[in-house]
Amino acid sequence: MSGSDKLTSTGANIVIEASGLVRKFGEIVAVDGIDLSVARGEVFGFLGPNGAGKSTTVRMLTTLLRPTGGSARIDGLDVVEFAPAVRRIIGVALQDASIDPLMTGNELMRLQAVLHGIPRSEAKRRCPELLARVGLTGAADRRVATYSGGMRRRLDLAISLVHEPSILFLDEPSAGLDPTSRLALWEEVRRLNRELGTTVFLTTQYLEEADELAARIAIIDHGCLVREGSPEDLKATVGSPTLRVDIDPVFFEATRQVLTGFGPQRPAMEGRVAVGLEGGAARVTEVVRALDDAGISVSHLELDAPSLDDVFAEATGRRLEGAEE
């Protein structure tokens, strides 16, 4: 999706807001005083590795977990003081959602409609439409116990949309999905945002997912926000493209010393040296010549434009899990 296709928050009112939000579990600080805001009609990406505090933040914003400190509001409603009212206006699809395996997809959809007080005639129309939208029409009358992990994720998304919420929280929505299902889910998120104006708060550890869907991104690490902005602006802060060189471990230190002269070192996976190549592609030949003069055998060399993973690496000193896949 191009930047022009993504909705931005300029001049729009804030519908998700956190101020100094804290959550502790005993002595462990899972979320450490974060501030964030999401505008109506925006797709907001919350990016970070496992254990960074993403899901804990979502659970507080969706009234499922009481904050230890700070405050949060959904469409002006405090998530603690007005929890029932908040639940009526949001949809939530959690990563570890509990779905009764003995019920069918149709039964779960109808049950959700009843819980939200949706008239039977309206539910009869809406539930099949939602199941079709997530590609589960053929499995609608099967017990959920027979569903794959990806099918359960899609069913959970459909369930979260039964009451047509204006604000949707998706916690790792594409976890466990095959590539085709992942693309279909992305398109559904775009459609909800584009056609219905749904505000989407999306947590993910997939760089491509955040880059594709979100107009703005906040990166969380160890419970703290370390970067926030549009994907384009965040990548622009990195500056130089990243040069990655794969070498035999015996040449690691020598390679590191050679490449230090071409730019600042960046975090890299084992068996690889990475630097921000000052001067960009024009200096690749110079790098190859310098490595050759030092007698270093290179198995692979690549130059990549700044990515969200580079942004995360610059902010935290390490790569996101799975960023090299």
Helices and strands in order:
Elements: E1 14-25, E2 28-39, E3 43-47, H1 54-61, E4 69-74, E5 77-78, H2 83-89, E6 90-93, H3 105-115, H4 120-133, H5 149-160, E7 167-171, H6 179-196, E8 199-204, H7 207-213, E9 216-221, E10 224-229, H8 231-238, E11 242-247, H9 252-260, E12 265-266, E13 272-276, H10 284-293, E14 298-304, H11 308-316
Can you characterise this structure?
A hairpin with a 5-residue loop joins strand 12 (265-266) and strand 13 (272-276). Helix 3 (105-115) packs across helix 4 (120-133) and helix 8 (231-238) crosses helix 11 (308-316). The chain is elongated, with a radius of gyration of 23 Å. By secondary structure, it is of the alpha/beta class. The chain starts with 13 loop residues before the first strand and ends in a 9-residue tail after the last helix. It contains 11 helices and 14 strands. It has helices at 54-61, 83-89, 105-115, 120-133, 149-160, 179-196, 207-213, 231-238, 252-260, 284-293, 308-316, and strands at 14-25, 28-39, 43-47, 69-74, 77-78, 90-93, 167-171, 199-204, 216-221, 224-229, 242-247, 265-266, 272-276, 298-304.
